Amino acid sequence: MGKVVLVTGAARQLGGRFVRRIQRDPDVERVIAVDAVTPPHRLGAAEFIRTDIRQSAIARVLAEHAVDTVVHLAVTGGGPAGARSAVKETNVIGTMQLLGACQKSPTVRRLVVKSSTSVYGGAPKDPAVFTETSQPKALPSTGFAKDAVEVEGYVRGFARRRPDVAVCVLRFANILGPFADSALAEYFSMPVMPTVLGYDPRLQFVHEDDVLDVLGLAAREPRRGTLNSGTFNIAGDGVLLLSQCSRRLGRPTVPLLLPAVTWVGSALRTVGVTDFSPEQIRLLTHGRVVETTQMREVLGFEPMYTTAETFADFARSRGTGLLPPERVGWAVDRVAGLLDVELDEGAQR
Prior knowledge:
- The chain is about 40% helix and about 15% strand.
- It is of the alpha/beta class.
- It is globular and about 55 Å long.
């Protein structure tokens, strides 16, 4: 008998792609895809069950199909404008309900949870590079980052109560690629990108194809010398500055004072252009970089794409911006130079 894998969040782009991908694993006999809405895409030979993980019905699904592996992809920051409360309920209440069902299930032996490096927050005094054991100076207090922190807390409690279940938490850096549908992808698709005056944050990305590969690895039995349980940072090698991203996209930036960026973000959310949340503003102010040694040495995963290669693939999918990249680069350097002069003169005064 092969494995029976249940995947949550199957109606989202990433969830649907993973459902189709995991079916190709020779050790997998059946895939059960669940979501509260009907997926707009194909799910291959998977059995789709429309159910809300916030409801107790998810326990019956686990029992009726004798599920042994659960891949929880329904923790997300996405959603239409004004739907923040529903997204939070799915992230937090849905995870609690799912974990309660897994705890009661005698067949579940492996749990994989999609999390985010946003759990580290974003503050000026944070470490230059976060490891899995790093403690942020200030825990996220709002938005998806706060949801992710709460979800991981519930997952740790589940792992203590069910030590017989292998639990793997994957903290993904910002996911990009040709099919990316995140708030950050929307921001990079804007014809003119607002930035925080005086800041050029370091950013790290992971390609959506690498996300699918590492999820598949975590859902399988570990190879000799590896361990498919624990918490792992997942990101491509290297970093990019926000100014480098704008150059490669051919999209000009508009440096604004932080209060103005906050106001612009609120206005964009109101009209539904993009989810320019306070959490994203912190990322575009202070940046975030994580260490990935555990990903390689313990989990045994090597991404195919670096951060720069991930962004290049994303940029190709979005087409050229308003200006040629070399002209954007000149403009960004010019503004940065003027700012440096003003800061030097202010320090001398």
